Amino acid sequence: MELTATAPVASASRHARHDTYRNIHKALRALMFDTLARIGRVDIEDREDLDATLARLDRLLAHLRSHVAHENEFIHAAIEARRPSAAQTTAGQHVEHLASIAALADEAQALRAAAVDQRPPLALRLYRHLALFIAENLEHMHFEETTNNATLWALYSDAELDEIHGRLVAHLDPRILTEVLGWMAAALNPQELAELVIGMQREAPPEAMRAALAEIRPRLDERCWARLARAIGLPPAPGLVEA
Ligand SMILES: [Fe+2]
């Protein structure tokens, strides 16, 4: 994609509409970049490091499969229900993504099973192919955040979009949901994270909130945690000083 002055820009500050994609796509970008960097630096002579790195890749691929499935089932279905064929572009890209995800899983398995002296080219192949997949995904997500969001906003009210998103989240595997929360904490800005957690506080029981905050806290430095704690009405831990 060539970025020009006329390229579509997704700006949360220009509108107050419900943005189905913003938080999860920020989380997925952070997860993809972090995983790519880990594969780039993996010690292929260290079985433990190799296994841990490939286990992380397995989790990334699980997240991406889940993401495609849920966008198909809830978001694309909503678009198609009121504007037939309007989700075709990204639905077609999802088919290609699932094939790429399967190919990356095969490459990871080949690396996992290889003898030490066979690993260098396999590790480099996996790193480069994951990078290319991420590049495609970045353009895909931008299209969703601009074109698909414009379609959703034309077809649905914010209350309806909130309801669709709620059904999608309720359908997520608990492990995926927990891990996503951690990546959102790492990826969102303070205002977005506070908005997310305050929304959860309105609906989640206390024990679920405690578990959620336990997932979030290790992903924030002391200053960011203190800022979030103030925003959601919790006292920051003793000794934490907010700038
Ligand atoms: Fe998508």
Structural class: mainly alpha
Give the CATH level 1 class of the domain at 19-157: Mainly Alpha
Number of helices: 9
Shape: globular
Spans with pLDDT under 50 lasting ≥5 residues?
238-243
Largest sheet: none
List all distinct small molecules, including ions and cofactors, that are bound in this structure.
fe (ii) ion
**Topology-level CATH name of the domain at 19-157:** Four Helix Bundle (Hemerythrin (Met), subunit A)
SS elements, strand count: 0
Quick synopsis:
The protein has 243 residues and is an all-alpha fold.
Question: How would you characterize the overall build of this protein?
Answer:
This protein is mostly helical. The chain has a domain at 19-157: Four Helix Bundle (Hemerythrin (Met), subunit A), CATH 1.20.120. It has helices spanning 22-41, 47-82, 88-113, 119-155, 158-170, 174-187, 190-203, 206-216, 222-232. The longest helix has 37 residues, at 119-155. The radius of gyration is 20 Å and the shape is globular. Bound molecules: fe (ii) ion. InterPro entries: Hr_FBXL5. This is Hemerythrin HHE cation binding domain-containing protein. One of its GO terms (biological process) is intracellular iron ion homeostasis.
